[in-house]
C-alpha cells in the first residue's frame, strides 16, 4: 500500500478560502444533474433516488424554476444531503432584458439546452423596468433574502449558454453574489465548440469567446456542454478539440473545468445538430473517463428526467435516467455504477493539476488531440489505443505523478502495456473499492517497469508513479 501522500487534501485554486463558493471548498467530487423531477414529482422520495444514484448536487429546471416550485425542491434536497443550484426563470428573463439589444440579441441562438431552459422564448413576459440592470440586482437580492439561509442552497443558476452580449450583466450578477458573502456559486454554463460564432457566441471564434468570457465575467468555474454521441455510431469531430480548448483556458485562469455528459438521445436537426443516440453504460463511463483525463473537476448529466416532447418543440428527446412516467430506465443503474466509480477516483484527482493529456496508438489523431511522445514518465505504449492524462500535486513531491490510462474505445476492451523509464522506481494502482493505492508487481525489462493492463469498454485505470 502507498501511504506517502495525503491523497485527499482540499484542492487549491485561484480563489481564496474566504471567497471560494462552498461547492468548491469541499473534497467531494461534484457529480450533478440537470432536469430534475418535475414539480408534481418533487419530494423526499424522488430526491433520495437521486442521492442513491451517486449524485451530490441538483440544478433546477423542468418546471422547478420559480418561487412556487423551488421551496419544495430545496427541502427535498436538504433532507437527502444534496446541494441545490437554484434556477429562477424570472431572473434569467431579466438578465436577457439587461443585455444590449435585449432578448433579440440572443434570439438566433438555439440548442438542446436552450430548448429546455427557454428563458427567452417568445411569449415570455418582458420586464418593463427602465433600468433592467437594477431589476437584476433586486431580483438577486430577493432570492438571497428568501433562500440564502437554506442549508441546501449551493448556488444560483444565472444562465445557460450565454452569448457575448450577456457577459457584462453576468459579471454584475456574479459580483452581487460575491458581495453578499453567502458562499454561493454563480453558476453559468457556456457553449460548446460547435456553436455558431455569429448566432450563439457573438465572437469570431470559440477561443475568442472563452477569452472574453473569462476576462469579463471572471467565473469561479468553467462549465460547458458538448454532446458527442452521434446516431448511427461515432462521435462529433470536434469533441477532443473542445476538451483541449477548455482544459487550456481553465488552467490559464486557474479555475476548475466542469462538463456535461450526454445521458439522453435527441433529434436536434431543427437547431442545426445531427441526431444523437442514447448512451449505454460503457458510453457513460467513457465520457466520464475522457473528462477526467482532460482534467475535469466536476461532472453533470444532461438529462436526469426525460424531457417532455411538446408539439412544435424544436428538439425531440428520448429517454434519460428516469422516464417521463417516473420509472427508472436501464441508464439509471448504469449511472449509479459510473457515479460510484467517479466519486472514488474523482476524489483522488480533484486536488491535482493536469500536466499533460496525450493520445497513444491511434492511427489518426482526432482534431485537437496531442499525440504521445516519450517523456520522463512513460517511454512507450503498446497495444490498444488509449488516452493518457498525467497529473501532479501542487506543492507535492516532485518525484510523484498520477497517470490515468483511458480506453479510447467505448465498445471494445483494450489491452495495454506501458514501458516506464528506469528513473521510475515504483508504480501503484488505485483500488477504488478500498480507496487506496497498492504497489504493482510489474515485470522489468532492462531496468524498466512494464505494467500491463486490460481495460473494459470505456474504462480506465489510475496509476501513481514514483521516481527515484
TrEMBL record:
The entry's protein name is Glycoside hydrolase family 42 N-terminal domain-containing protein
Query: What InterPro entries does UniProt report for this protein, alphabetically?
Result: GH (IPR017853)
Region (Disordered) spans which residues? Answer: 102-131
Top-rank taxon of the source lineage equals: Bacteria
